[in-house]
Amino acid sequence: MRCHYCDRNAEVAVEKDGVKVGVCQRHFREQMEQLADSDALANLEEELDIDGPE
């Protein structure tokens, strides 16, 4: 599987509703940084009921 954003091999793949998308390590990190800078990550943690480091 190839990265959704470039032509590298996908190292991470996510599937939802039968649609599978892969990303390379670089683009995975970029997406995680964007999530960390937004409220989306906090909302996801709350939705999944994830406890942070104690």
Description:
This is DUF6757 family protein. InterPro entries: DUF6757. With 54 residues, this protein is α+β, with helices and mostly antiparallel strands. The protein has 2 helices and 2 strands; from the N terminus they run ββαα. The protein has a two-stranded antiparallel sheet. A hairpin with a 2-residue loop joins strand 1 and strand 2. The longest helix has 12 residues, at 25-36. It is globular. The relative contact order is 0.16.
Tally of strands: 2
The total count of helices amounts to 2
User: Which segments are poorly predicted (pLDDT under 50) over 5 or more consecutive residues?
Assistant: none
**Average pLDDT score:** 85
* Widest sheet, order of strands: 1-2
Q: How are helices and strands ordered from N to C?
A: EEHH
Give a quick set of tags describing it.
54 residues, two-stranded antiparallel sheet, globular, DUF6757, DUF6757 family protein
